[in-house]
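Morning - S-adenosyl-L-homocysteine inputs below, output right after.
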Amino acid sequence: MGQTRLHVTASKAEADRIFAALEAAFEDDALPLAVQEIDEDRDLHEVSVYVDGDAASAEARMRAVLAGLGLPGEIGTEVLPDIDWVAKSLEGLKPVRAGRFFVHGAHDRDRRQDGDIAIEIEAGLAFGTGHHGTTAGCLEMLEEVVAAERPRNALDLGTGSAVLAIALAKLAQIPVLATDIDPVATDVAAANARLNGAAALVECITATGFDHPAFAARGPFGLVVANILAGPLIELAPDMARHLKPDGSLVLSGILDRQEEAVLAAYAAAGFRHRRTLHREGWVAIHLKR
Ligand code: SAH
């Protein structure tokens, strides 16, 4: 049987009280609870209880809890659709083509074709299976930039699964420093680099922005790619300029179409010229040079 979500709307203060009381009431059943902001201006929050199977008795207990708090709100019910998680996760793992790159899971190894630069990534705890428009945009742009400029070393800042670092190592056979703020991502990145036979070229470290001695030791870089988000990219603009070789190239993504101008302005102020923008599913990948 499927799952039912029981929910009630309240102010933030009330929602917190309801949440605490429901947590105590449903402790033995270990039912998942959630509070979500619905409308900030009107201070509307929704407390939800997720029930497997029979929701009637849980609803009666929830009603009693609300009455006990003197907050007899109306309880809504939503029957959640059954989701086949196996099919769903395999769907997310369909292989992706971007330029010559073929990014795939283990089960699609035999679908590689001659001329592909294959990158095997298992969907896991780190971002970057190639499905996101930002990753695909970066892959395509990196292929062009490498062909035109033949960089001798590279940096992948915000490496996630290391998909871009592995792509660069395989495509250009150059050392790539792959960094991430999240140590879990760095571990996944290192495992993926080994899986793809790229461990000798891809060095994975945990660092926030450029805050690590490895950047000075390995840089300056002929090519830097950073698929993070517009906000941190804007903040990092002056550091990017410092760590890029004078004739090097910078590829940025994680930027929504409407954020492109603000990012370009920040990078212009840091001495970068805009070369090209690639649009993918509402996101942009930007090529810049100093
Ligand atoms: N490069 C991969 C993953 C992009 S997701 C791809 O293109 O698919 C962005 C990654 O950047 C996340 O793993 C996140 O942990 C990391 N990140 C976010 N802010 C960062 C920062 N300031 N410094 C380093 N890494 C950061």
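Note: The chain has a mean pLDDT of 91.

O.
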